[in-house]
């Protein structure tokens, strides 16, 4: 998208957003959309602070060190690393000891002494030194003391980040990323200070910012607060499962009762309710009535004609008499039908109460079953939101691409309902497609020479599966044909689907004859309503057409004292976010946490002389027999 994001860092953006939204409750953070998160990492201003960007850092740092100053995460111990280096140096010194002639090394035609070697080593150390993070604090644990008292203002939290990264750089797993960040925040050619670190953090690259949050999130994931939250969610899931089993058992009993009642209704129905004629019989009856009416009309006309014609013969009277019998039979049939209806109506009231009672009972049982199903759906939703230990993948397609929808578990659909940006109606609203693992690619996609697929014997199989007439189309060729320019070749590459039209095209592309794609399509069909709703809401939110958006003043709520600038919150939507969760819980944000009061100091032995002290710990002046406070 040409937005400055490195392809290899996309997983950092996604993983940190997922972590912060799943564990937003123990971190006391409002949930936020993925688009606002990207904007917050891109936003940089020396005059205005982005609450979303600042609160994320402060919340993660507070989880690493508690208010008692105890480190909750597993940080490497620098003293142990120094001891190991000293031991390795001693071993090297011991192995290099020898005679006096060994202190002089021959390098071509030039002689090099030990003194020259020490100078060269000092120069190499200066060249290798890329930052001055160790000089930012007088004590190596200075950042811990500052974090203990929650001193985040005036470059405080940026300096604490430097302390954490410097401590983490000892570990070989994180040394490369930490060194790159520390090189920018505390360069060698500049004296490290709180103000300089704060200014240089404003110019930190977006990929390095995502790396910082990724490292802090990994440390926070090991803390006691997150672990306690996971255990609490696990206990809730166990309770929900037990309650769900009881509700399912009650629902099963109600279904059995409903079946018995339906059988009773069928037994009572033919005895107490007259059978309604079938559609064919009704049509025949209607035609018969029409014919009878026409015959009666014709007979009447002929009778009238016979009365007027005095010269009529006996044959006409015979025909009229036969028609008279037909009319008498028709009247008899009508009387019998009315008598049957009357008899049925007379019998119906005797047992209709029992039949109506069965019908009412059936409706009551159906309503109870519906309530039980609502409870089961509620338990399923609670289980989905409490499932925070591991994020679940949607599935894989025929080319072993992984599909992710980051609202599937661990969080409510659309984020927390009480969030300051809950009116957006979505959290991520994109289907993310991750490339295959190298082992999957080499084992299933890339064809090696001499294998069954590459041999002539496998041409028939290739022709059958790939649809090629000559049987020469490989899996990679088929992938290039179907995916065109969006081929993903490694797990560091991601693609996404963010519109309803593209999502429906993807569903139609999936083949249910395959095992993987059948399961994948079933997962998408299960959450299809929520996925499409989120995509529609995201489109409205980015266009500024979301319903229920609160009216806010232009610019954020907190500004620095260096000046004021007008930044349109409609363009920078991340500025509309506020940490309502922390404010409702503690009455303040993470950044603006009040500092603890300092104990009063003794000055001039005032306390020893019996002079009282004021609230600031200063001695009060005495006027006569009274103290002037």
From TrEMBL:
Biased composition (Low complexity): 274-287
Ranges of Acidic residues composition bias in the record: 77-94, 299-314
Basic and acidic residues bias spans: 102-111, 118-134, 315-344
Cross-referenced InterPro entries: DDT_dom (IPR018501), WHIM2_dom (IPR028941)
Gene Ontology, cellular component aspect: chromosome, telomeric region; nucleus
Example of a GO biological process term: subtelomeric heterochromatin formation
Record keywords, A-Z: Nucleus
Keyword Nucleus annotated: yes
Protein name: DDT domain-containing protein
Limits of the DDT domain: 7-70
Region (Disordered): 74-134, 269-353, 541-565, 587-629
Compartment annotation: Nucleus
Pfam short name (any one): WSD
Subcellular location, principal: nucleus
């Amino acid at each position: 998208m040409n937005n400055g994001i490195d392809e290899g860092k996309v997983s950092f953006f996604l993983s940190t957003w997922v972590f912060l939204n799943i564990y937003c409750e123990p971190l006391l953070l409002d949930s936020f959309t993925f688009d606002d998160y990207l904007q917050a990492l891109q936003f940089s201003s020396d005059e205005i602070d982005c609450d979303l960007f600042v609160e994320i850092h402060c919340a993660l740092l507070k989880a690493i060190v508690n208010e008692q100053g105890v480190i909750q995460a597993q940080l490497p111990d620098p003293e142990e690393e120094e001891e190991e280096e000293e031991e390795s140096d001693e071993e090297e010194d011991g192995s290099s000891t020898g005679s006096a002639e060994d202190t002089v090394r021959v390098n071509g035609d030039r002689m090099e002494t030990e003194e020259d070697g020490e100078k060269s080593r000092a120069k190499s150390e200066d060249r290798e030194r890329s930052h001055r993070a160790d000089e930012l604090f007088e004590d190596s644990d200075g950042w811990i003391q500052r974090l203990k008292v929650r001193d985040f203002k005036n470059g405080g939290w940026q300096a604490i980040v430097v302390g954490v990264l410097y401590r983490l750089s000892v570990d070989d797993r994180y040394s490369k990323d930490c060194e790159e960040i520390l090189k920018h925040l505390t360069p060698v050619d500049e004296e490290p200070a709180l103000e300089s670190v704060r200014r240089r953090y404003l110019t930190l690259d977006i990929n390095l910012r995502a790396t910082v949050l990724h490292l802090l999130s990994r440390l926070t994931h090991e803390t006691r607060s997150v672990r306690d939250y996971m255990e609490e969610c696990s206990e809730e899931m166990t309770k929900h499962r037990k309650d769900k089993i009881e509700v399912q058992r009650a629902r099963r009993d109600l279904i059995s009762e409903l079946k018995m009642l339906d059988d009773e209704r069928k037994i009572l129905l033919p005895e107490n309710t007259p059978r309604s004629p079938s559609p064919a019989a009704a049509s025949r009856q209607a035609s018969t009535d029409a014919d009878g009416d026409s015959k009666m009309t014709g007979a009447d006309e002929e009778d009238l004609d016979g009365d007027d014609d005095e010269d009529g013969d006996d044959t006409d009277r015979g025909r009229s008499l036969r028609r008279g019998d037909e009319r008498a039979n028709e009247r008899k049939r009508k009387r019998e039908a009315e008598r049957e209806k009357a008899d049925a109506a007379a019998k119906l009231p005797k047992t209709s109460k029992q039949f109506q009672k069965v019908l009412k009972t059936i409706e009551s049982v159906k309503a109870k079953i519906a309530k039980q199903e609502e409870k089961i759906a509620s338990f399923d939703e609670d289980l989905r939101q409490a499932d925070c230990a591991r994020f679940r993948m949607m599935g894989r397609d025929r080319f072993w691409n992984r599909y992710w929808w980051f609202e599937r578990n661990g969080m409510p659909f659309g984020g927390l309902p009480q969030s300051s940006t809950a009116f957006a109606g979505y959290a991520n609203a994109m289907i993310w497609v991750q490339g295959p693992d190298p082992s999957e690619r080499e084992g299933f996609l890339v064809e090696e020479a001499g294998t069954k697929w590459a041999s002539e014997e496998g041409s028939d199989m290739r022709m059958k599966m790939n649809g090629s007439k000559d049987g020469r189309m490989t899996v990679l060729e088929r992938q290039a044909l179907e995916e065109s320019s969006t081929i993903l070749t490694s797990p560091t590459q991601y693609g996404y689907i963010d519109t309803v039209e593209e999502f429906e095209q993807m569903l139609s592309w999936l083949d249910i004859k395959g095992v993987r794609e059948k399961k994948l399509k079933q997962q998408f069909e299960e959450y299809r309503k929520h996925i499409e709703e989120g995509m529609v809401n995201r489109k409205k939110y980015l266009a500024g057409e979301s319903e229920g958006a609160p009216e806010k003043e232009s610019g954020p709520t907190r500004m620095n004292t260096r000046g004021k600038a007008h930044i349109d919150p409609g363009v920078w939507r991340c500025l509309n976010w506020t940490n309502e969760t922390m404010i409702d819980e503690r009455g303040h944000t993470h950044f603006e946490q009040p500092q603890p009061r300092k104990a009063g100091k003794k000055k001039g032995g005032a306390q020893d002389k019996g002079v009282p002290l004021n609230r600031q710990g200063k001695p009060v002046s005495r006027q006569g027999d009274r103290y002037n406070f």
